[in-house]
Amino acid sequence: MPSWRQEIIELQYIITEAVFMNVLVVGCGKVGSRLARLLAQRGHNVSVIDREEDMFSQLGEDFDGVTVTGMPMDMDVLRNAGVEWCDAVAVVTPDDNLNITISQIVKTFFQVENVVTRISDPAREMAFHQFGLSSVCSTNLVVSSLYTTLTQPIEEKQITFLNATLAVDARPVEEMYIGRHLDSVPQLAGEAVMGVLHPGGKVTINDGKSRIELHTGDQILITHLVD
Length: 227
Description:
The chain has six helices and eleven strands. It is α/β, with parallel strands linked by helices. This is TrkA N-terminal domain protein.
């Protein structure tokens, strides 16, 4: 999985809740633009700041959020983007120093509690936490993903979100369930069925609505928390 996609998943996981929110994304590069699109598609009200107007083209023509061109450290630019009414702010420019400065402004002056900051230098992560900021380190995400890919078989993968680690197992379908539907397979306490991995690598997601028929060679994708 590309590192920017991992960043987006973890950023979105940290800043969103069950309710729709007003979210400000600072930085409209590869990560910021995709995060903004994902949030908007999920029904959140999104505004985006970038110093270069051309960067907003990455949002696509169907993006229905607000875009503001200007220096993100400028208090008036932040106000124009609606920071005073935001429930959450994601600061995702490529500059670690700029990100920590903007995050402090948003948290201190505008009293936004849910501020998530992107960083690339793992050595700075502790400094971010000392300021009470949540951070996602792209370098650590890549290292973790590479380590998992190198050391774990395909039947067992682990994904870490903040302090929680999820294990994903691919379990062969027992012969007695061939030709039956996924919901007929007993589910153990503490486990969730993500979907089915078919021969050839295709995955069918268990959305709770469709009935997935099991065939020879299928594997059931199971997830559970790691102690």
